[in-house]
Amino acid sequence: MDTIFALASARGKAGVAVIRISGPSAHKVAGRMAGIDLDLRGMKLCRLRDDAGDILDDALVLTFAAPASFTGEDVVELQIHGSTAVISKALDVLSRQPELRIAEPGEFTRRALENGKLDLAQVEGLADLIDAETEAQRTQAQALLAGKLGDLAESWRRDLIRAASLLEAVIDFADEEVPTDVTPEVNTLISRVEAQLIKETRGVAIAERIRDGFEVAIVGAPNVGKSTLLNALAGRDAAITSEFAGTTRDIIEVRMDLAGLPVTLLDTAGVRETDDMVEGLGIALARTRASQADLRVFLVEDDDTLGISIQSDDIVLRPKADQRPDTDASISGKTGQGVDQLIERIGAVLSDRCSGAGLATRERHRLAMKKSGDALEGTRRVLETGPDQYDIAAEELRTAIRALEALVGRIDVENLLDEIFSSFCLGK
Is the peptide bond between 67 and the residue preceding it cis, with omega within 30 degrees of 0? Predict the structure, then answer.
């Protein structure tokens, strides 16, 4: 296995930068730069030098011995001063070492997977944690990284292996003193796993929204204050506002953290009948995006007809509260009246939906669990035909088990790895 290195912290000026080295020659190369024999485990303040013996930097050198490291290999981390010049010089010196090569994107994490330090779901959790922008995303990613989905999949796998072993005992030892009617226990094990698979599969869609973000569309007729409200919610002038109807003709998007959730607000074109071709395209796009959004905020008068269905959770308000004697169920982006209450309502609706989120967060997870669930359903149908079909039922169980193993990356995921790790930075 090659020894690899890369900058593990962000580029640019900082107080400290971290360079990670992983592989069999990590301690040897770092010790040569420090001019001492480094302990296999520990930390030491060292003066690093280049190949000519000139001082490179004073660094805190952390050493980790295999397998007790992130990658499962010998690892050294050099904490150097975070100036551009020091970082560039240190990387240049390391690149000249014959034992080393620069790491590829995600290669440290890939080695952690290959060495059994992480399962594939944990790898995806780590990627999500690096990208997390809100508290909900951080919490969700931490659960994956902690291995909770892998632990759940392993508990399902144990139950199914037990069920398969009962069937195979009857098949292999039909003439021995083994119980012949194992169907009740097998059905109990299958039912328990099936119920949990169904629950987790249903929670994938909302978990994906937490990871990727919710969309909230502001919908209404022209000149009712949609863009003004967007600016008030965003806290900046994200959209052009004017007294002339039809100013907004495209979708304006503002991403924000709302109640700890990632939310993209959509300012849409005012919905009305028009002969203007460009405005008409904007209105058609507004209707489409509004129908696809997770939640809609309607700014409407009592007699407005927008041609967009109002769903049960949608929020309906009257616009321009600053111009009304009766301000009930109304809002004004201009004065801010009702804006805080709207934020609370949006947060409450989306938070309530998030209560149904499970540990699985990706379509890949859903497909693996669905495949396992379909195999269990097939097992149940075969079991109903009696012991003569136990061999077929056992094969259906093995299919279910293999799907769960693919979920955490034990089998059949080699074609996914390049795509997954390409999204990582060099230092991960």
Answer: yes
Sorted by where each starts, the structural domains of the chain and their CATH numbers stand as 3-114 (3.30.1360.120), 127-209+362-409 (1.20.120.430), 213-354 (3.40.50.300)
Alpha-carbon gap, residue 426 to 421, rounded angstroms: 10
pLDDT one-digit tens code per residue, 144-183? 999 999 999 999 999 999 898 888 877 766 555 555 677 8
d(CA 79, CA 103): 18
* pTM (2 d.p.): 0.80
Contact 404, 157 (CB under 8 A): yes
pLDDT tens for 290-330 read 888 899 998 887 666 667 778 888 998 888 887 777 767 88
Distance, first Cα to last Cα, the chain: 17
Query: Looking at this protein, which amino acid is placed at residue 17?
Result: A
Three state DSSP letters for 232-251: HHHCCCCCCCCCCCCCCCCC
How far is it, in rounded angstroms, from Cα 183 to Cα 393?
A: 11
Task: Tell me how far apart the alpha carbons of residues 24 and 19 are, in angstroms, rounded to a whole number.
Answer: 16
